[in-house]
């Protein structure tokens, strides 16, 4: 069909060493393969993605649906970020066994810890199903009609697609709904914690260093996949065995230097690279600042309470990290957009697009798009801000409000159908238990008092003394009795009575208006993507991230964030010691690490200068979801573990700029150094395949020269 033909027009431009983009691994042959090789890669497209033979993609797992992980041994050993495994590390921690503070290392398989609900999913194969999914779609259809037919076609395709009984399938939209791919997947549910450094290594620098280079953070953790007797996915069982992977990544001991090729392979979450200028301006000038203020108000309380109590620190470690991460990211995003003059550059691009429409006689067809965006965003902006502010207060920062929100959802289900009682009780009970597992009422009360004024609602701190929700036992008592009694109990609760009108306003007014005003923007964005490819077919287009498997390639490079400042691409253990502040929650250093540094006891993990590299920079185009992604060298070996971006470069979700956008990776030699020399877990090192690609290739070249002579 016409839309599909348009999609392939963009591949005709001349291949070069251009960087940026998150590419579908099954479509790398040609342009992408040439670009990678121009950047120094020795890999073929088939080395990266192959359905019939083992390839790099078989070692890359989607970690719990939000991060990436990679298999690094033939016994299913998996590497991901410390912050990706943080929730699991926290769940096994207590005051007696504080694995967040002290770290955890299983010295044999029996000591590895199971994690209920944790999964790792692999991609078996990828298939273009655009023709099937878009069959019957016409320009005369309404957006609702289009989406209904697309959903019907997609479900039909998934239902009949051939796969093994233990496999699953899903479809995803690409290029704003102009193209669709089907993924055959395998999901493993028996995932066990193997090792994690103490937070003073895995979270070194904490909020101060987050999104900032130079980083000195050993942001890694180790897990293991277990499978049944047939090496297939299975729920946890003591009889399960370590998984035998189709492929695992060898680890290079040669490390990296400036200019080396790097490929990051993973599951990036969400990007919006083709937004109009008016949207970028709205996000950075209006939308982000209000949400930054709410999170900042919450963090002020959380950080203080965590410093005062170890028990509170353990309870809120994971929550604080989630809240702080986006807070600082949005600040950096705004800085990057301003510094790169992104809004003005996007307007210049839009002028080029408008000119192309005129030259190709497409004004009647697409000339309304940009003026319509301006009109729609002007009307959409206030409700978009209000809706997100509600989410920040009721679902992100304040737990009492979150409990009332969940209770309201159950009440509405009961009003709609009284027979939902038992299911509603079960759902809400689980939600309340999850929150109360790591809940401190005094901290939460302080957060409430700080954030609610920013939402424009009056504060009534007395509800914390009157409500049943701040105690799990009394909260569950609200759910006792029949449907009528449960509804009555909820409405008689002080916190619920306070929150209910605000929640009703959200559902009945705010969210309804948001959905109504967002729908035409979504439809117009799809049309804009189609128009761009038709009007400017020689431009560079890659699909936005959507939590599917992608390849992004680049090189090890430093950068200049501002005038007269330049960051070298590699940081070292020396920097950890330079930043060391005894007993500081962000910059404390374990005594054993200090002793290893002073003795220069680095084993085989130092570089040619006798120093231990900790982190390095690359030009890879990454985003949330790439946390834990492997950084792979020119030969397919693991050299780094992606975990962050530089502060000014977080704008790459909307505007990738090769001058200042950099991803930050833990050097694998630092990971190995910590596992071996610090933790004494050499049995894990023995599992891995350690290689010297630079040395080995140099020897091969010398042998070839001798033969020629």
Automatic annotation (TrEMBL):
* InterPro entries referenced in this protein's UniProt entry, alphabetically: Pep_S46, Peptidase_S1_PA
Keywords attached to this entry = Aminopeptidase, Hydrolase, Protease, Serine protease, Signal
Give the EC number(s) listed in the UniProt record. Answer: 3.4.14.-
Q: Where is the signal peptide?
A: 1-17
What domain of life does the native source organism fall in? Bacteria
- Pfam families annotated for this entry? Peptidase_S46 (PF10459)
Q: Which family does it belong to?
A: Belongs to the peptidase S46 family.
State the protein's purpose.
Catalyzes the removal of dipeptides from the N-terminus of oligopeptides.
Put simply, this protein is called Dipeptidyl-peptidase
